[in-house]
């Protein structure tokens, strides 16, 4: 075998690492996995609630426990390998805080926004106790990390009195529910993104917040639309870059998505496969 088109399953990587006839090469994938919210449901439509969730999520722990180190924490909706367009200065909620510090900050955010607690359960500003919520993701297959990430997020949200039920469904079922707006939260990913950041308009422009669009959270923000419209017509590269940087900052402030990680892509050519006679012409 000279080349495998699909991902190498996680359980096989340890075996390959122990095989001296194989050399593993890894590079950041051109995409990212993320947690997203249904912005047409309460309390997911509240930026304070979304910021509290983002504060609780420890991406480094997800990378360590769910992906065994085979990923890079992601904080923006442009992957970090895309160095020209990637805004490394975006807000990083909870970054560098301990578990207890994250929890204290998340609770302070919620309390300041009118939330309270009754017997450990979160109570919304309306006075209604928060119901259990679902995190949708696709069936494990070659992506068991998404379920593992959902289980970690379930544990962290339980500390602020939110009961989470992870649900795995076939990908086509998940996408159908997203298009019909029948969900609370979900974990999915975008792979093989172009180097050009035009996809940000597709993911977050209000014109895409419709059943056939890819703005699944139904995010609507007039300032983002203005920036996206200007960026799509801007011919000056560096002026466009400034607009794209501001778009990233706005998304990390409003948090329709919480980027989680960028997986590392593995290839495993053996020395004989790297010889000139075996290279494609």
Blueprint (SSEs and pairs):
Blueprint: H1 10-17, E1 25-28, E2 32-37, H2 47-56, H3 59-66, E3 71-73, H4 99-112, E4 116-118, E5 121-123, E6 133-138, H5 144-158, E7 164-169, H6 171-179, E8 185-190, H7 199-204, H8 222-233, H9 237-254, E9 257-267
Parallel strand pairs: 6-7, 6-8
Antiparallel strand pairs: 1-9, 2-8, 2-9, 3-9, 4-5
How does this model look, in words?
Helix 2 runs antiparallel to helix 4 and helix 8 packs antiparallel against helix 9. Strands 1, 2, 3, 6, 7, 8 and 9 form a seven-stranded mixed beta sheet that branches. This protein has nine helices and nine strands. The longest helix is centred in the last third of the chain and has 18 residues. It is 36% helix and 17% strand. It starts with 9 loop residues before the first helix and ends in a 14-residue tail after the last strand. With 281 residues, the chain is of the alpha+beta class.
Short description:
With about 280 residues, the protein is an alpha+beta fold. The chain has helices at about 10-15, 45-55, 60-65, 100-110, 145-160, 170-180, 200-205, 220-235, 235-255, and strands at about 25-30, 30-35, 70-75, 115-120, 120-125, 135-140, 165-170, 185-190, 255-265. The strands form 2 sheets. Strands 1, 2, 3, 6, 7, 8 and 9 form a 7-stranded mixed β-sheet that branches.
